[in-house]
Write a structure and sequence with these properties.
Elements lengths: L13 H12 L31 H5 L11 H10 L15 E7 L25 E8 L7 E6 L2 E6 L4 E8 L6 E6 L5 E6 L18 E4 L1
Antiparallel strand pairs: 1-2, 1-8, 2-5, 3-4, 3-6, 6-7
């Protein structure tokens, strides 16, 4: 990266939005063109180190595994190939009651990043301090409760419907980020916790707006 390539484009729930649009429009051809695009930080698969050798791109991607986004692909691909347009058909492909992924930026929008020689990325003001969540639920969805925790508090809770559910929850707080899904008996049937805590400022290192992505 250099000064001319230090920029930020907001994403939030773009992934879930595109899934709904693709199924609705039913195009003849679909390609995921950013599968290992480490330089733009919206990669889905493994990063090829030889493609970014000699650059500082690894600084922005090390520890930021995005493979959790793949959790949504098998049921989506199956529905797309079958010509199904209703997202209620997108249930977990692994036989589990629920599955999904959440993502967040470990650095708050308000961070000064004064010690990063490149400063904050262009477009940083468009970022949102939000907890982004997509859940796939089976036919018993109405019996489940989704609890979202940010910092030391519960940020929100939801009751899903069958199929694809998505939320972008504002108010991300400093500290750990996690999710817990319980059934009607209070039994935890799925959970996930981010390996990176959210911080309010960057006193050293790069001003990294990459997402932490957590599959569950």
């Amino acid at each position: 990266m250099d000064h001319n390539q230090n920029w930020y484009r907001r994403g939030e729930l773009n992934y879930a939005t595109r899934i709904r649009q693709v199924l609705s429009l039913a195009p003849d051809f679909l390609e995921i063109v950013t599968w290992n695009d480490a330089g733009e930080s919206h990669y889905f698969g493994k990063i090829w180190p030889d493609s970014i050798a000699g650059t500082n791109i690894q600084t922005y991607t090390d520890g930021y595994d995005h493979s959790g986004w793949q959790k949504l692909l098998p049921p989506f691909i199956k529905a797309y190939k079958a010509g199904i347009k209703d997202v209620s058909s997108l249930i977990p492909s692994d036989g589990k009651a629920v599955s999904g992924v959440f993502w967040y930026r470990p650095l708050l929008k308000s961070a000064s990043c004064i010690n990063d020689f490149m400063g904050k990325p262009r477009g940083w003001m468009n970022a949102e301090d939000s907890f982004n969540l997509v859940v796939l639920a089976d036919s018993r969805a109405s019996e489940y409760t989704i609890n979202i925790y940010s910092g030391y508090d519960m940020l929100a809770w939801y009751r899903p419907v069958q199929g694809l559910n998505s939320w972008s929850i504002p108010g991300l707080r400093i500290g750990s980020q996690s999710i817990e899904i319980v059934d009607i008996n209070g039994r935890v049937i799925a959970s996930g916790k981010g390996t990176m805590t959210v911080i309010g400022d960057m006193s050293h290192g790069v001003c990294n707006y990459n997402y932490q992505v957590v599959g569950f």
